[in-house]
Write a structure and sequence with these properties.
Blueprint (H helix, E strand, L loop, with lengths): L8 H8 L4 E5 L6 H13 L3 E5 L3 H17 L4 E5 L8 H13 L6 E6 L7 H6 L4 E5 L5 H5 L6 H8 L6 H6 L3 H17 L3 H4 L4 H23 L5 H13 L3 E2 L2 H8 L3 H13 L4 E3 L15 E3 L3 H8 L6 H17 L7 E6 L5 E8 L2 E7 L11 H9 L7 E5 L5 E4 L2 E5 H4 L7
Parallel strand pairs: 1-4, 1-5, 2-3, 3-4, 11-12, 12-14
Antiparallel strand pairs: 6-8, 7-8, 9-10, 10-11, 13-14
């Protein structure tokens, strides 16, 4: 597979033209090095220097004289990879950044990459407060794999504040062969996730082997970067139990009981998983009325391929797996928007539940998820109820499914194919 242009490249390049320090974080093997070492210099058309702190000799070299090394670079762009391994480097970066500003902004742009949010904890934020821009790189999105350059229906809905009038005709006009390829690509993405090395492997067994090796490396190497875990086997079991609950409301007490660990230990392990981008928590939507009684977040393991490696012979229900994939695509999309939208789920004591709410600039888009190829009007009933109860904040709602037709199934409620919503149709 040829190198895929990452959609984070444009905002990263824009920041690099005006900022001095940028942090690109994300799980290991999401493509941070390819993006920063190769794609970014090409986009900016500038030479770069590159240092990987996976190399212990480089860590030692910087320990002995970080400030002088940082000030010695005479290229416009310096990429410092795996920065979480050198927490001592943030104070020198602060010093060099401040000196550069006082000298009129002349000096290199430092792009830092890290596979753990550990480097973004409070003390690091305070060290570089006002001096650093933060970006997250996720595994491949469906639109990146398709080559649609982010031209998704979801983007158009928010841009035009409703369903564009031409959309029903637009989807019908797509040639059948392109539609077939789009649905096939979406199905593959739902099965294997978006880690780049998986998409560079054709054989099914090779994909599975890489994913299992990734999980093993994560446990043996990455966890050592983010915190002390005395018993890796119990940590791995906690990871598996949480992964099996993807798409469900999180109950720490239930997980604690299942793994025979204290609630505080489970909470700490959950924090490690979250800081290393293995799982994500989706908060419930709060209103200023007494309806919302559900206060626990939902937990999501967003990459289907990695979930397969974590669970082994265990399996996730098809509905929860599909909901987790949709969450992943929504999360990747929000990371590219300005301002970044917020994601929630919605559940009331009366039983009304909406899988996702996308909130941006005072507007809310309710999204229900159905893992099937056909949708009926009854599938949109909950979304319609939400629209009627929130008339000022909503213009339409969606029911996302695996089929091929775009249709209004209830008043202002549209059934939308997942591949079309997330930009799975190649340009052409």
């Amino acid at each position: 597979m040829d190198t895929i242009r990452r959609q984070l490249l444009a905002p990263l390049a824009s920041l690099a033209r005006k900022e001095r320090v940028i942090v690109v974080s994300g799980a290991r093997q999401t493509g941070k090095t390819t993006l920063c070492e190769f794609q970014l210099p090409g986009e900016l058309r500038v030479p770069r220097a590159y240092v990987s702190f996976d190399d212990p000799d480089e860590r030692l070299r910087f320990q002995k004289g970080a400030v002088s090394i940082l000030e010695s670079y005479d290229v416009p762009l310096v990429v410092l990879d795996e920065i979480q391994k050198t927490p001592f480097l943030f104070d020198p970066l602060k010093l060099v950044s401040d000196r550069t500003r006082k000298q009129g902004g002349k000096g290199p742009v430092f792009v830092l990459t890290g596979s753990s949010q550990f480097l973004l904890k409070k003390d690091v934020r305070e060290t570089l407060a006002g001096r650093v821009s933060l970006l997250n790189l996720h595994p491949f999105s469906l639109s990146e794999l398709s080559g649609s350059a982010g031209r998704s229906l979801l983007t158009r809905i928010f841009r035009e504040k409703g369903m564009p009038r031409e959309e029903p005709e637009r989807i019908v006009a797509i040639p059948s062969e392109r539609t077939r390829k789009a649905t096939h690509l979406a199905a593959e993405h739902r099965e294997w996730g978006g880690f780049p090395p998986v998409w560079h492997r054709k054989d099914r067994e090779e994909k599975i082997r890489w994913l299992r090796d990734y999980r093993r490396t994560y446990l043996e190497r990455d966890i050592a970067d983010v915190g002390q875990v005395a018993d890796l086997d119990m940590f791995a079991l906690t990871q598996k139990i949480l992964c099996a609950r993807t798409g469900n409301t999180l109950s720490l007490s239930e997980v604690s009981r299942d793994v025979s660990l204290s609630v505080n230990t489970v909470k700490r392990y959950l924090g490690l998983l979250s800081r290393s981008f293995q799982c994500h928590l989706l908060p419930p939507f709060f209103e200023n009325v007494g309806k919302r009684l559900v206060k626990s977040p939902k937990v999501f393991f967003s990459d289907p391929g990695l979930s397969r490696a974590i669970l082994g012979e265990m399996s996730i229900g098809a509905g929860a797996a599909y909901e987790s994939w949709v969450f992943s695509e929504l999360m990747k999309w929000t990371a590219l928007q300005t301002p970044e939208p917020e994601l929630f789920y919605y559940r009331t004591a009366a039983g009304l539940e909406i899988d996702f709410l996308v909130a941006m600039r005072g507007n809310i888009l309710p999204i229900e998820v159905k893992n099937r190829e056909r949708i009926s009007s009854i599938d949109g009933r909950g979304v319609e109820t939400f629209l009627n109860e929130h008339p000022r904040a909503t213009r339409l709602g969606l029911v996302v499914y695996t089929g091929r037709e775009l249709a209004e199934v209830r008043n202002r409620v549209w059934a939308v194919p997942d591949w079309y919503l997330f930009g799975g149709v190649a340009e052409g």
